[in-house]
Input
Amino acid sequence: MQIDDALMERYFSLLAEIKSELVRTRIDSVHIIRSLIYYLLQKLNREYSQINHLAVEKNEQNDAFAFKQLIEIHIKEKQRISDYTELLHINRIALNKAVKNQFNVTATHLLKQRLLIEIKDYLIHSKLTVAEIAYQLNFSESNHLMRFFKKQTGLTTSDFLHEYQNGISS
Output
């Protein structure tokens, strides 16, 4: 993709800002980084779509993208596929097919990975205990969160934090 120098300089500026947040992390850095990355990706998508004569609006109509947007909005209180199928007014099979076609993973996998990211975010950037994180994310008990985390990562929450603090895990 050919991008003019002025636009490329703007993208580099955004990347420099992301790097700055990563180097000098603050309590709200994760939100700033997330928004900058989202902004950068949307701008690149818009540029790519314009160059290749693709309709940017198409993504808004797609059930897979709508599912992904709903996950971002509701991840703290909704962790079941049925919650999202109700919101989207489609059945589980249609949702899974749309997600599989768009992202090459199942809807359940996408949901679990997003929930895992949320747990890691809490573990790294908050002072909350595992029990408090479990409460924040609507797990009925903290051991359910710990079991979910171990199944997804192969690590306990303590092992994950230890590895993260020593630069081993991400």
User: Anything to note?
Assistant: DSSP finds ten helices and no strands in the chain. Residues 1-56 form one domain. The CA atoms of residues 163 and 169 lie 5 Å apart.
